[in-house]
Design a protein that fits this description.
The structure holds 3 protein chains of 3 kinds. Chain B is α/β, with parallel strands linked by helices. Chain B contains 11 helices and 15 strands. Classes of the chains: A mainly alpha, B alpha/beta, C mainly alpha. Chains in contact: A-B, A-C, B-C.
Chain lengths: 346, 372, 350
C-alpha cells in the first residue's frame, strides 16, 4: 500500500520503467554468475552442443512461457497449459493411427488447442468465473480427454520427416524448435511491448474498471490471451511429440510448475499489469542454465525440483521483502528527519 | 538502489551455493575419465571365448533408475556398488534419477546430458518407453554405451544391451503357475493389477501371461481384467477393491509390481476378504512378509535386484572397456555370478539380451528369512 | 418457508440429491452394486480426502488455496511411519499428535510466506508442493515404510468398526473423519474465528478496514490446513501401511476438486464443511463406481472430473448468485414486515 502511494507521487511511467530495468539487471547478474560458476565447475558446459542441448530439452516449456506471460500480465492464470500440450501431442499421434495424415493432424491439434483456450476464455471472460478454477478444471479435464484417446498405449511411428524436424538440426546446429522459439521471442516482444494489443493487455491487468472506462473491450482481450495460450501450448505439444518420437497420455504432465516459474521469475506480477518480455526471456535462460548446471553436476531430479520450487517462491517473496524494507527505511528516515528537525525548531 | 543490490547478492549467493555444492565432487573425476578409458581399449577376450574384466580401469558410469526413492532401485545400486568395489573402478558411478512425477522428461534430460558429462555408460531402467529412443540414439552416437536393465527400450533403438532380470516369457508361466497353485485344480477367475499402462516390462509380462494361458495346462484359468494402479498405493488399493466388487467370484489378483501387490494385499486384508481372494505376483519379501504369513498373499515371486545391479555393472564395465563388443553370441564372466551369454532378445523384435534369472518363489517357509 | 433455507443449504441439498441419483443410476447398471461392501469401500475411501478437504475449505474461504497438501500428507505419513517402526511401543496418541504437529509446522511455513510475505497462495504452495516432496525423498533414503514394521494396533485400526451389519461396516476411521467435519462446521458457524473467515473472504479490504486481524487469521487458516493434512497423513499411513516417496502425490487436485464441487466459492467468502464432505463423497462415489461399471471406459474418469469442477463453479456463479440476491431481498422484505408488525404491536401498548 505504502509503496503504491509512493509510486503515485513520482511520475508513474519512468518509475515503473526503472523498476523493471533493475529486475532484469538482477536476472542478468544471476545468469552471469550461473554461467561463470558452472563453466568453472563443470567441463563441457560451454561446449556449443551442450548449450543447444540445454535449450532444446526445455524449449517447449519456454515457448509456452512466452504465451503464458500475456495471460498473467492480463491478471489471470492458465493452469491447463501442460494438459493442452499433452492433448495436442496425443491428437497428432491418435489421428495418424486413425489414418489421418500427420499434416492434417497437426492442424487439428492446433485447432483443438485454440478451442481449449477459447473454452477457458469463455468461462473466464464472458461468464466471469475465476481463471484458477476454470483452468484447474482444464488441467484435469483436457488430460482426461488425452487419456481417453490413447488409454494405456504409447503411440509412435511418426513419418520420418516429422521425427527429423523434432530431433535433427535444421539450420546449422539449430533444430527447428530453437529457430521457432527465436522467432516467437521477437513476435511476443513486439506484441506485448510495442503494439496496441499489448497495451490493452497491461491495462486490463492493472485494473479491469480502468480498462472498461477507457474503452478497452476487456472480455475480448481476455479471450484473445487465452486463445493464444491454448494455441501456443498445442504448438509446443506438437513440437514435443516430434522431439520424443512417441507420445502417451501422460506426455508433458507436470510441466506447469516450470512454465509458471519461468514467467514469475521474469518479474511478471501474478496480480497482473506489470512485467516485461525481456524479463521472461532472461528468466528462461536463468532456469535452463541453472537446471543444466545442476544436472551436469550430478544433482538428482529432486534437487532440481526443489531449486525450481524455491526460485518460484523467492521470485515473488524477494521483491515483496525489498518493498517492505524500503518502506520501513523511508519511514524511519522520515522519523529521523522529524526528530532532527525538532531541536533546530527549538 | 542499495536494497536491490542486496537482493541481487542474495539470489546470486543462493544459486552459486547450489551449483558449487553439487559441482564439487562430480567435477574432479570427470577430467580423468577419457584418458584412462581410451588407454584400455585392448582388454582381453580370454582363451575360452569368455571375456573377463580387467579390474582397475577408470570408467565413468551412471546408474539411472526410473526414479529415486523406492527400494528395488536402491538394492540395484547396492549390487552395482559391490561390483564396482570388485572391479576397482577408479571412478565412482553416479546414482541419479528424476522425481517420480517427472520421470519421463527427467530420464530424457539425464540421457541427453550424459555425453556432455563424459559418461561412458548409462545404465537405465527405462520408464519412458520409446520416448527415450531419440536421446539414447544421440548419446550412442556420441560414444556412450546404453545398457538397459529391469525395463528395456521397447524398440531397442539406442540400446546397446538389455540385462533382463528374468525371461519375460517365463514370467508369464510363473504367474500362471502361481495362479493355479492358489486356485487349485478347479481354476477360476483372476485379474491383473499392473503398474503404469506404458511400462515396457509390465506390458511384456502381461503379454507373456496371455500367451502362457493358451497352454491347455492352464485351460481353467480365466483372466477377466487388467487394471492399472500407476505404482501408487492409493490407486492400486482402490483398483483392487473395485476388482473384487466387479467380479464377485474373483479368486486371485495377480500384481506384477511391488507397489501394486502390497497395496492389493492390504486392500483384501482391510476388506476381510483374504479367505476369498488371494493376492500374488511380484513382490519384495520385506514388504510382503506379514501378508504371506497371514494368508492374504501365500505365494509370490521376485528376483534379486542386488544381483541385477551387480550383473548390469559387470556387463557395462566390460562393454565400456572393450572386453566385449555387445554382439550376439559373446560370453563374459560376471564375478560371483558366473558366466553369461549375449543373445538376441526373443521377447522383442529387436535387441540383445543378457538373461539373469531365475525367479525366486516366496511362501511362508522362506519369506521371513528373506525379509531380513 | 423457502426463505428459511440459506443458499449454501440449497447447494448441499442439490449435492445430496445428485448423490442419491448417482447411486440409483449405478444400481441399475452394476450388478450387486447396492450392498454393504460398496458402502464400506466408498466410505473408507473418504477418510483421508474428507479430513484434508476440511483444512482446504478453511484456506479457500479466505480466498487462498493450498496446493501443498498432497506432499504434506506423504511427508507426514512417511515420517510417522518411520517413527513407529523405530519406536513401536509409543502410545497411540503420540504419533497422532506428532502427525498434527508436523503438519502444522509445514502449514505454518506456507502461512508465513502467504500472510506475512504477501506471496500469492498459488505460487507459494505450488513451490512448497515441490519442496516438501523433495524433503520426503531425501528423508526416506529410498526405504519404504512397510506394514510388518508397524505396531499391531495400527494395522488393526482400519478394520475396526463401530457398527457392523453383515458386509456393511461403519468403520471407526470414517467416524473420526465425519467427526472432524462436524467439529469444524461448528467452528465455522459459531466461533468468532470462523465468522471472521467469511468476512475476510467476502471482502478482504473491508475486513482490513474493520480492523480484523487479517494476516493472523489467514496464517492460522494455513496452519490448520497443514494440521489437518498432517492428520490426513496419519490416516493415510493407517490405511495403506506401505509408504513410498510417491505417497499422496496428486491428492491436492482431488481435494481442491472436492472443495470446489462441494460449493466452497473459490472467490472466498462462502461454503461449508458439510458441502466439502458431500463434494468429496460425490467425487469418490463417481470414481469408484466408474471402476466397477463394466460398460464404462476406465479412462473416462479425469475428463468427467474436470467437467464436474467446471459445472460446479459455473452453477455457483450463475445460479447461486441469483439465488443469493433473491434470498437477501426476501429476507429484507421479511425483516421489514416483521419490524413493521412488531412496531404495530408495540404502539397500542404504548
Amino acid at each position: 500500500m505504502r509503496q503504491r502511494a509512493r509510486q503515485s507521487r513520482s511520475p508513474l511511467a519512468p518509475e515503473l520503467f526503472r523498476r523493471l530495468r533493475s529486475w532484469e539487471g538482477l536476472l542478468l547478474g544471476v545468469l552471469a554468475v550461473i554461467v561463470v560458476v558452472t563453466a568453472a565447475a563443470v567441463p563441457g558446459y560451454l561446449h556449443p552442443q551442450n548449450q543447444i542441448n540445454l535449450l532444446e530439452l526445455s524449449i517447449e516449456k519456454a515457448i509456452v512461457a512466452l504465451a503464458l506471460s500475456f495471460v498473467i500480465v492480463s491478471g489471470e492464470i492458465d493452469l491447463s497449459i501442460a494438459s493442452v500440450m499433452g492433448l495436442a501431442a496425443v491428437l497428432v499421434a491418435w489421428l495418424r493411427q486413425q489414418g489421418v495424415p500427420v499434416e492434417v493432424g497437426i492442424v487439428a491439434a492446433l485447432a483443438a488447442g485454440t478451442l481449449c483456450g477459447l473454452f477457458n476464455g469463455y468461462w473466464v471472460a464472458i461468464v466471469g468465473l475465476p481463471s484458477l478454477a476454470v483452468t484447474l478444471a482444464g488441467l484435469i479435464g483436457y488430460r482426461g480427454v488425452a487419456l481417453l484417446l490413447v488409454e494405456d498405449r504409447s503411440i509412435g511411428g511418426f513419418p520420418d520427416w516429422f521425427n527429423r524436424l523434432g530431433q535433427q538440426p535444421l539450420v546449422g546446429p539449430f533444430p527447428l524448435a530453437l529457430i521457432v522459439f527465436a522467432a516467437l521471442v521477437v513476435i511476443a516482444t513486439v506484441l506485448l511491448q510495442f503494439s496496441g494489443f499489448g497495451r490493452y493487455v497491461y491495462v486490463v491487468g492493472s485494473s479491469r474498471e480502468v480498462a472498461r472506462f477507457s474503452g478497452v473491450r476487456v472480455p475480448r482481450v481476455k479471450m484473445a490471451v487465452f486463445a493464444m495460450s491454448g494455441l501456443t501450448a498445442a504448438f509446443a505439444g506438437v513440437l514435443l511429440a516430434a522431439r520424443l518420437g512417441a507420445v502417451r497420455g501422460s506426455t508433458a504432465e507436470g510441466f506447469e510448475l516450470d512454465i509458471i516459474t519461468m514467467v514469475l521469475l521474469g518479474g511478471v506480477s501474478i496480480f497482473g499489469g506489470s512485467g516485461s518480455m525481456a524479463g521472461v526471456i532472461l528468466s528462461i535462460l536463468v532456469i535452463l542454465n541453472l537446471r543444466n548446471g545442476l544436472a551436469l553436476a550430478n544433482a538428482t531430479g529432486n534437487t532440481q525440483a526443489g531449486v525450481i520450487g524455491a526460485l518460484l517462491i523467492l521470485s515473488v517473496l524477494v521483491p515483496n521483502l525489498i518493498a517492505a524494507a524500503r518502506a520501513r527505511a523511508v519511514r524511519s528516515a522520515r522519523v529521523e528527519a522529524g526528530r532532527r528537525s525538532l531541536p533546530s525548531a527549538k | 538502489m542499495r536494497i536491490q543490490h542486496g537482493a541481487a547478492l542474495s539470489l546470486l549467493a543462493i544459486s552459486a551455493l547450489v551449483i558449487a555444492a553439487c559441482g564439487g565432487p562430480a567435477a574432479a573425476p570427470s577430467a580423468t575419465v577419457s584418458a584412462t578409458a581410451s588407454a584400455t581399449q585392448a582388454a582381453s577376450p580370454s582363451a575360452a571365448g569368455v571375456a573377463k574384466a580387467t579390474p582397475g580401469q577408470s570408467v565413468k558410469m551412471m546408474l539411472l533408475p526410473k526414479f529415486l526413492g523406492i527400494l528395488p532401485f536402491t538394492q540395484a545400486n547396492k549390487g552395482a556398488t559391490e561390483a564396482e568395489a570388485e572391479l576397482k573402478n577408479g571412478t565412482t558411478h553416479a546414482f541419479v534419477g528424476p522425481t517420480a512425477d517427472n520421470s519421463v522428461q527427467g530420464q530424457i534430460e539425464f540421457m541427453t546430458n550424459a555425453s556432455t558429462q563424459g559418461y561412458k555408460v548409462v545404465m537405465i531402467s527405462n520408464n519412458a518407453g520409446d520416448q527415450i529412443a531419440p536421446a539414447a540414439q544421440a548419446a550412442q552416437a556420441a560414444g556412450v554405451k546404453i545398457v538397459a536393465w529391469d525395463s528395456p527400450i521397447p524398440s531397442a533403438k539406442g540400446e546397446s544391451l538389455f540385462v533382463a532380470q528374468v525371461d519375460f516369457n517365463e514370467t508369464g508361466k510363473v504367474m500362471a503357475d502361481m495362479a493355479i497353485n492358489l486356485m487349485g485344480a478347479g481354476g477360476g477367475k483372476f485379474a491383473i493389477l499392473s503398474a503404469s499402462p506404458d511400462a515396457a516390462n509390465q506390458n511384456a509380462w502381461i503379454k507373456a501371461l496371455n500367451d502362457a494361458l493358451k497352454d491347455p495346462k492352464y485351460a481353467k484359468l480365466q483372466l477377466v481384467d487388467t487394471v492399472y494402479g500407476n505404482d501408487q498405493s492409493e490407486k492400486s488399493y482402490t483398483q483392487a477393491q473395485a476388482l473384487v466388487a466387479k467380479y464377485p467370484d474373483l479368486k486371485v489378483i495377480m500384481a506384477p509390481t511391488t507397489v501394486g501387490i502390497a497395496a492389493a494385499a492390504k486392500a483384501m486384508q482391510d476388506g476381510k476378504l483374504c479367505d476369498k481372494v488371494k493376492v500374488s505376483g511380484l513382490g519384495l519379501p520385506s514388504e510382503m512378509v506379514s501378508y504371506t504369513l497371514n494368508g492374504c498373499a501365500p505365494q509370490f515371486a521376485l528376483w534379486s535386484f542386488v544381483d541385477l545391479g551387480y550383473l548390469t555393472y559387470y556387463a557395462s564395465y566390460l562393454l565400456a572397456t572393450g572386453a566385449i563388443k555387445g554382439a550376439d553370441g559373446e560370453q563374459f564372466e560376471a564375478g560371483r555370478m558366473g558366466t553369461f551369454k549375449i543373445t538376441k532378445d526373443p521377447t522383442r523384435s529387436d535387441g540383445l539380451r543378457v538373461l539373469m534369472g531365475p525367479f525366486k518363489l516366496y511362501d511362508k517357509n522362506n519369506v521371513e528369512a528373506e525379509a531380513k | 418457508m423457502v426463505r428459511r433455507i440459506r443458499p449454501e443449504q440449497v447447494r448441499e441439498l442439490t449435492l445430496l440429491f445428485i448423490l442419491v441419483a448417482a447411486v440409483a443410476f449405478f444400481a441399475t447398471q452394476i450388478p450387486g452394486y447396492v450392498s454393504g461392501r460398496t458402502f464400506t469401500d466408498i466410505s473408507t475411501g473418504l477418510e483421508v480426502i474428507a479430513v484434508v478437504a476440511v483444512g482446504q475449505t478453511l484456506v479457500v474461504l479466505t480466498r487462498n488455496i493450498d496446493l501443498s497438501v498432497g506432499s504434506v500428507v506423504g511427508l507426514v505419513a512417511y515420517f510417522v511411519g518411520t517413527l513407529l517402526a523405530n519406536e513401536p511401543g509409543l502410545a497411540p496418541a503420540v504419533p497422532v499428535a506428532i502427525a498434527i504437529a508436523l503438519g502444522s509446522a509445514l502449514g505454518a511455513i506456507n502461512g508465513t510466506i502467504v500472510a506475512y510475505g504477501r506471496v500469492p497462495a498459488v505460487v507459494t504452495t505450488l513451490g512448497t508442493l515441490a519442496i516438501y516432496r523433495v524433503a520426503l525423498v531425501e528423508l526416506s533414503g529410498a526405504k519404504t515404510v512397510t506394514t510388518d514394521s508397524l505396531p499391531a494396533w495400527l494395522l488393526d485400526l482400519p478394520r475396526s468398526s463401530l457398527v457392523s451389519l453383515g458386509d456393511l461396516d461403519i468403520r471407526s476411521l470414517v467416524v473420526v473423519a465425519v467427526a472432524v467435519v462436524i467439529a469444524f462446521q461448528l467452528l465455522l458457524y459459531y466461533a468468532p474465528y470462523g465468522r471472521r473467515l467469511f468476512a475476510i473472504g467476502s471482502n478482504p479490504d473491508a475486513a482490513r478496514v474493520a480492523g480484523l486481524p487479517l494476516q493472523r487469521d489467514v496464517f492460522v487458516a494455513f496452519v490448520l490446513s497443514g494440521a489437518l493434512a498432517g492428520l490426513g497423513g496419519f490416516l493415510f499411513l493407517v490405511r495403506f501401511g506401505n509408504i513410498t516417496v510417491v505417497a499422496g502425490q496428486g491428492l491436492e487436485l482431488q481435494v481442491v476438486a472436492a472443495v470446489v464441487v462441494g460449493g466452497v466459492n473459490i472467490f472466498g467468502g462462502s461454503g461449508s464443511m458439510v458441502g466439502a464432505l458431500l463434494g468429496a463423497a460425490l467425487i469418490n462415489l463417481l470414481q469408484q463406481s466408474l471402476l466397477r461399471w463394466p460398460a464404462a471406459n476406465p479412462f473416462v474418469q479425469d475428463a468427467i472430473l474436470g467437467l464436474l469442477i467446471l459445472l460446479a463453479v459455473a452453477s455457483d456463479k450463475v445460479v447461486l448468485e441469483r439465488l443469493r440476491t433473491t434470498w437477501v431481498r426476501a429476507r429484507r422484505r421479511d425483516d421489514e414486515r416483521a419490524t413493521a408488525s412488531a412496531a404495530k404491536q408495540v404502539t397500542p401498548g404504548a
